[in-house]
Batch of 2 targets.
Target 1
Amino acid sequence: MATDHQQCPVAVIGAGVMGTAIATTVLGSGLPVVLLDVGQAELDRAERTIEIQLRHARMMDALPSGRAPGRLVTTTSSSALAGARAVVEAVVEHEATKVGVLTDVAGIVDADTPLISNTSGIPIDTLADPLPRPQQLIGTHFMNPAYLIDLVEVIRGRRTDEATVTAVTELLAALNRRAVVVRDSPGFVTSRLLHPMLNDAARLVDEDVATAEDVDRLMVGCLGHRTGPLRTADLIGLDNLVDSLAALYERTGEQRYRPCEQLLAKVHDGHLGQKSGRGFYDYREALS
Ligand SMILES: NC(=O)c1ccc[n+]([C@@H]2O[C@H](COP(=O)([O-])OP(=O)(O)OC[C@H]3O[C@@H](n4cnc5c(N)ncnc54)[C@H](O)[C@@H]3O)[C@@H](O)[C@H]2O)c1
């Protein structure tokens, strides 16, 4: 009997900030997920976080209504991804790691399975280059928190084919997500605009022009930002922000992308933002 591909799980690789939130979005839409990470501890934490995020998403009316959550399977073995409907790669923002993961999974899933990277800014064409089927790679830049934000930046690589674009926009529609499709370029649209702004905000604190609180208060109160750039940086994860800026700097040579000392020092000290309990702000009480 032929398998109905729509009923097959969505594979999510990487159970960090984004992989967990993407898994919540898919599960909350009633679709099954197989979530892979290299560490069991990350998977255990993700399972607990998904429970909380599902409740939060329902409270905020952010997911399709009237659907029972899909089934979650967690694994450290990539062979468990065989038969996936689509693969979403959400591992760290390092080109070699992403290419390794995508190459491995391309050899495991069916030949027509779309491969999706959630990279913040590494060009899709660069990631596609070493793959056996580069036409099946596409970028979906889910924003954080993915289970609350219904718009997704979709990046069509130079070689991404029409079937992949269609399969991925259909999948996003099943998640009640709207897509804006853009062309490939370092940082695409959102990271190219947002990341240097976050870097500059950290630089202002570095130069003692203003405190983190005052930078954010000005951006919220005067310019209508929702939370301010430094709270946003803490939400993203300062390690990921540094990696994303470094990836953009490496590809463009533009100084505005060079991670500033303030960010590098915080990452060096393990102050990664919300996920570690401290960043520009202190979250330890909320986490305890
Ligand atoms: N954090 C954000 O706000 C945000 C927003 C949009 C896009 N992104 C992008 O999403 C991706 C993931 O970012 P994140 O913030 O979730 O990172 P993270 O550091 O929170 O999580 C990364 C996860 O990947 C896992 N991992 C590393 N190597 C792996 C491998 N070989 N196989 C399987 N798992 C592996 C790690 O154990 C970790 O759990 C990055 O490309 C990032 O740039 C992040």
Target 2
Amino acid sequence: MILPGDTVLVGVSGGKDSYVLLKILAEVHNPSKIIGLMIDENIHGYSRADVFDFLKKTCHDLGVDCINTSIKKELGYGVDDFMLMQIKKYSSIKVSACTFCGIARRRILNAYARTFNVNKVATGHNLDDEVQTYLINILRGDLMRLIQLHPLSMTHSKLLVKRIKPIRAIYEYETSFMAYIENFKFQETECPYILQRPTLRARIRELIKDIEKFYPGIQIKLLKYVDEILEPLVKSTNTKPIELPLCSKCGEPTSPGRIICKFCELVNEVLNI
Ligand SMILES: Nc1ncnc2c1ncn2[C@@H]1O[C@H](COP(=O)(O)OP(=O)(O)OP(=O)(O)O)[C@@H](O)[C@H]1O
């Protein structure tokens, strides 16, 4: 996933997974080629600023540069702003905070990766996260998305920096254990929007957790199995690269067939543009 000459931007949230990722990366790769980026989501009562000082010190000890920014500063609207605008317009929630937040964070990570001229963006998605995402997309029958999730898949735009998930085969309990023995100070408050998390993911998480109790190792087997089935498809897709269209509003790459990207669509809808 990472070659000796690579420069990597790591998304660090203040949570255990991205901490474990940063720690391992700084040990196996040249720390001067790693940058940590923490994005504040602008959620009242859930400020990343509280953990940034601790994270900065952690990065300093690892020899890694660390920077921070916020969704509002980069894109004009934070998560709370988006949710308030939505409630004002529809008197209900049509798009979850997690959807807006995920799209915004990915966009910012990619923009910073371009600015700093790095060639990989790494996130701390663990095995449990990855198995849930695979299963969600299998249940939705979304083959294109499954192909994109595979570690060998290519990006389809000059403006997109390759995303990698180096700890995707590591169980969540293992990252928790490592963070614990390393005495890592977790962000203690939970995101107030947690209850709006997509129910399909929450249901799958509970189901798999339950099965794993009786059949230990089931998640790693599933990940390897799906990776293996997808590999020939990924390789054949890589030989026919497509160039994604650009959003007519913001100029960022968007999915085939779209005129404006998902981010602009979400914001424009609630703003009545
Ligand atoms: N605010 C953020 N700033 C930068 N990167 C982030 C942020 N939130 C999440 N990420 C990146 O996306 C990954 C997955 O995020 P998710 O929200 O699923 O958190 P998680 O599974 O609890 O991981 P973590 O323990 O690192 O918070 C994180 O490991 C991190 O690399």
